Amino acid sequence: MIEESYPKALSELALSPVSHPVVDPQELEKGKPFQYHATVEIKPDITLQPYVGLKLEGKKGEASDEEVEERLKNLQNLHAQLKSVPDPRPVGSGDFVILDYDAKMDGKPLDEAKGIDFTVEVGSGRFIPDFEEKLIGLKPEEEKEFDVSFPADYGYSAWAGKTISFHVKIKEIKEKVLPPLDDEFAKDLGDYPSLNDLRAKLKADIQKEKDHELDHQLKDQLVDQLLKANSFEIPESLVEGQTKSLVSDTKNRLASQGMDFKALG
C-alpha cells in the first residue's frame, strides 16, 4: 500500500524529494483506514533574483610561440632513447646510472634499502637528491661508500632525521638521446606532413586549453554571483550524499595507488 500510495501523494502535491522517505506507519486495525506519515526532504524553493547584467571579468589568453616550443620539447623528451655511453667516462648530471646499492643504519643492514640493477636519473631529485649528487664523478665498475643525512620531516618516518651509509657499485652509464626536431619526427607522431604542421596543431591545442580555462573562470564567477544573490538552505541529505561520494572517491583513489586507507586512520 505504501509503495503504491507514496508516489501518488508526491505527484498530487507536486513535490520533488531529494532524499528517501522516513516512514512512520500507524497501527493497522481491522475495519479502519490505514494511515502512515512520510517525512522527506525536498528541493529548496528559490525565488530567482535578477541575473541579467552581471559583470564578469576575464582576459582571453593567446597561445605563444614560446609555449609551442616548450610543448614540442616535452614531446621530444617523451620520445628520447637511453643509450649506453660508448666511451667510459665519469657520471654527470642528467645521466641515467645503472647500479647496485645497499645501506646500513647504525652499522646494521637495512633490508628495505637494497637495489640491484637500479636506475637513477642523476640530478632529477626523483630518488634521493643527496644520493644522486654523490654519484657524480664515479666511473663504471667503481664502488663507493658515502653517508646521506635525511631531514627531520622526511616522508619515510623510519629514516627521518637519521644518517644512512650507502654502498654503491656503478654498473653502467646511459645518456638520453633526443630525436631531432624535423619533419620525420612530426610524421612519426601522427598525420603531420611537416614539423610546421605539428607546431600549428600544438598551438591550436594550447589555444583551446586557454579558451576552456577562461570559460571555466567566467562560469565560476557567474555561479558565485548567483549564489550570493540567491541564498538558500541546502538539504542535509544532499550534504551527506556529497560527503559519502567524496569519501568513496578518496578510497578508490588510494586503492588504485596500492595504499590502504585504513592505515591512515
Overview of this protein structure:
There is one protein chain. The protein has 265 residues and is an alpha+beta fold. It is built from 6 helices and 7 strands; from the N terminus they run αββαβββαββααα. Strands 3, 4, 5, 6 and 7 form a 5-stranded antiparallel β-sheet that branches. A two-stranded antiparallel ribbon has the order 1-2. α2 packs across α5 (195-229) and α4 packs across α5. The model has no long low-confidence stretch (mean pLDDT 91).
Keywords:
36% helix; alpha+beta; 265 residues; 5-stranded antiparallel sheet; two-stranded antiparallel sheet
User: For the terminal residues, how far apart are their CA atoms?
Assistant: 45 Å
| Residue windows where pLDDT falls under 50 for at least 5 positions | none
Global mean pLDDT: 91
Indicate the radius of gyration in whole angstroms.
32 Å
Largest sheet: 5 strands, antiparallel
What structural category arises from helix and sheet content? alpha+beta
The residue fraction in helices comes out at: 25-40%
Strand content: 15-25%
Number of helical elements: 6
Name the overall outline. Answer: extended
Give a summary of the structure in a few sentences.
The protein is α+β, with helices and mostly antiparallel strands and 265 residues long. The protein starts with a helix and ends in a 9-residue tail after the last helix. It has six helices and seven strands, in the order αββαβββαββααα.
Q: What does the secondary structure layout of this molecule look like, with pairings?
A:
Layout: H1 2-13, E1 22-25, E2 36-39, H2 65-78, E3 81-84, E4 96-105, E5 108-121, H3 129-135, E6 143-149, E7 163-177, H4 183-189, H5 195-229, H6 236-256
Antiparallel strand pairs: 1-2, 3-7, 4-5, 4-7, 6-7
